[in-house]
Amino acid sequence: MERLTLGSLLDVIGELFSDEISIAVSNTSEYIYYRPSKRVDLKIRPGDVIKEGTIAHQALITKQKVSEFINRDMFGVPYHGMAVPFHHEGKLEGCVTAIYPAFTEGKSVVVIKTSDGWKPIPFNNVKYLEVKDRKTHVVSGDISGTHKKALQEFEYMLPRELFVRCHRSFIVNVNHIKEIYPDTHSTFLLAMNNGEEIPVSQSYSSYFRKLLGF
Predict the structure, then answer these.
(1) Superfamily (CATH) of domain 6-101
(2) Are 173 and 211 in contact (CB under 8 A)?
């Protein structure tokens, strides 16, 4: 264990992720580790300065998890990513970024499977996504269907200005929330504008409140 370096440890951890996911680790100003994936390579090198506008930069500035789509202007290729800052003894030390390939740049629809075939639903019309019976169900105003992607994958690809993860089984479109009710001292119920009620779990309540600012 004494010979185990940070790089070798991160290489081992990287094996736990899909070959489609690149991993970057930074301190508060520059990257210290990068493992490119087979599908997307941002050409990051240890020692590269963190660029303003990247999700790593946003995570360090806001000191909270950031998940969003970044267009090709930043690194030459579009990607979806999630960056999570980390602290040591209360002090911000850096962040870890997971980088996913963007299969279609700037796409703004979810294609769902219905009994009649497949139908594209614009992001704005999606009210919420729910995992049940091992499937991801996409609910819009007038139609619902399923999608093969896991809820975690949707968390990376959906625009964060519209969608918030509120429960291990739910992602909601904030524009379709009618009211927010306290459920217990640390959880909430979301009354959606279609009459549905969606829970905000204790593990997501603080994150949810921070993003919505209440």
Answers:
(1) GAF domain (3.30.450.40)
(2) no
Q: Which of 40, 44, 47, 70 is nearest to 58 (CA)?
A: 70
Q: Is 61 in a helix, a strand, or coil?
A: helix
pLDDT tens track, the chain, 214 positions: 445 466 666 666 666 666 668 889 999 999 998 888 777 788 899 999 998 888 899 999 999 988 877 766 677 776 778 899 998 888 999 999 988 766 544 568 889 999 889 999 999 999 999 999 889 999 998 889 999 888 877 876 787 778 998 998 999 999 999 999 998 877 899 999 999 999 999 888 888 888 888 8
Closest CA to 176 of 138, 133, 131, 214: 138
Q: Are 110 and 118 in contact (CB under 8 A)?
A: no
| CATH 3.40.50.720 is held by the domain 109-212 | no
Which pTM was predicted?
A: 0.56
Domain ranges within the chain, ordered by starting residue? 6-101, 109-212
